[in-house]
Amino acid sequence: MAASVLFDAPGPRTRVRHRIYSIVASAAIVAALAFAAWKLYDDGQFEYDLWEAFVTPDYVRALLVDGLVVTVTMAVFAIIGAVIFGFLFGVAKMSDHRWIRWPAWVVVEFFRAMPVLLLMIFVFFMWFISSRAGFLWIDQAGGFFAVVIALTCYNGAVLAEVVRAGVQAVPKGQAEAAYAIGMRKTQVMTIIQLPQAVKVMLPAIISQMVVALKDTSLGYAVAAPGLTKVGQQIYKELHNQVPTAIVVAILYVTLNLLLTWLATWVQRRFVGEKKIDVVKVAAGIDEDRAAR
């Protein structure tokens, strides 16, 4: 067996020991899950009355329409806004102009350091005050927009750093070759560096999408609609906190798995392993100029 670059390949005894560790750990996890299930059963949490709501059409419709659809809507708006925010401020942080670079740095660092829940509460109360003053006429949508704006700002600030790191990960020779054939910095950034940086950034972007989707659950603190709001209404009415929490958690996990699968498929389908030929790009630009 060939040795790895970072460590030696395990021998027969080490492989046996690792198998034993895996079996013991798996048995411990199964035992913990079995104990938790037994405790729930002993406390009567598996009684049909507590779970009946999740096979009742009205409650299922509320979970899917008022909960799932609204949660996905908030997440989609937040993710789109965060990606736009991240690309704009990520590029601005790399600007040669201080009057662009420093304000962008302040905005990104502020929203990265701000806890999402506090940001939601702040936006919600600002929305509430503005609506009472007559500046906003959609008072009832304050919770929805508080979640979307807070998640956009926080995740956008994180993605701004991801964009900056992705661009810096592109080999410097790509930019140098582009400058050598007369391309401007804006062209180098938008045509050469950013398309190649997407491959580096995409795993982090997918991860941040999942974070944004999960963080919509914090909207209960600002009376935002969504899964947690509907779940809260159900267990307050039926006093079945544990079954409701399990069902809502399953829905969130399913959503996250679907989002991860979709983002990974998009990465493989539209990004792949494509590389950019600077000379061909420059030739295309020259042809466009000649056509004009």
SSE diagram, text form:
Elements: H1 12-42, H2 48-51, H3 57-92, H4 98-113, H5 116-132, H6 142-169, H7 172-180, H8 185-215, H9 227-238, H10 241-271, H11 278-291
Helix pairs in contact: 3-6, 3-8, 3-9, 4-6, 5-6, 6-8, 7-8, 8-10, 9-10
Largest sheet: none
Q: Tell me the Rg in angstroms.
A: 25 Å
CATH superfamily: MetI-like
Helix content: over 70%
The ordered H/E elements are HHHHHHHHHHH
Describe the structure.
- It is a single chain.
- The chain is 78% helix and 0% strand.
- It has 292 residues and is mainly α.
- It has helices at 12-42, 48-51, 57-92, 98-113, 116-132, 142-169, 172-180, 185-215, 227-238, 241-271, 278-291.
- It contains 11 helices and no strands.
- The N and C termini lie far apart (62 Å).
- The longest helix is centred in the N-terminal third of the chain and has 36 residues, at 57-92.
Quick rundown:
The chain has 292 residues and is mostly helical. The protein contains eleven helices and no strands. The chain has one domain: MetI-like (MetI-like fold, Orthogonal Bundle), CATH 1.10.3720.
Features:
292 residues; mainly alpha; MetI-like fold; flat
